[in-house]
Amino acid sequence: MCGVERRNPCEPEFIQAVREFAEDVIPYVAEHPEFREAKILERMTEPDRIVTFRVTWEDDAGQIRANRAWRVQFNNSIGPYKGGLRFHPTVTQSVLKFLGFEQVFKNSLTGLPMGGAKGGANFNPRGKSCREVMRFCQSLMTELHRHVGEDTDVPAGDIGVGSREISYLFGQYKRLKNRFVGVLTGKGLASGGSMIRTEATGYGCVYFCENMLNHRGDSLKGKTCLVSGSGNVAIYTVEKANELGARVVTLSDSSGFIHDPGGIDAEKLQFIKELKEVRRGRISEYADAFSGVTFHEASRPWGVSADVVFPCATHNEINADDAHALLANGVVAVCEGANMPTELDGAKAFREAKILYGPSKAANAGGVAVSGLEQSQNALRLSWTREEVDAKLQAIMQDIHRQCLNYGRTSSDEVDYVSGANVAGFQKVAQAMLSYGVV
Ligand code: NDP
Question: What integer best gives the mean pLDDT of the chain?
Answer without folding.
Answer: 97
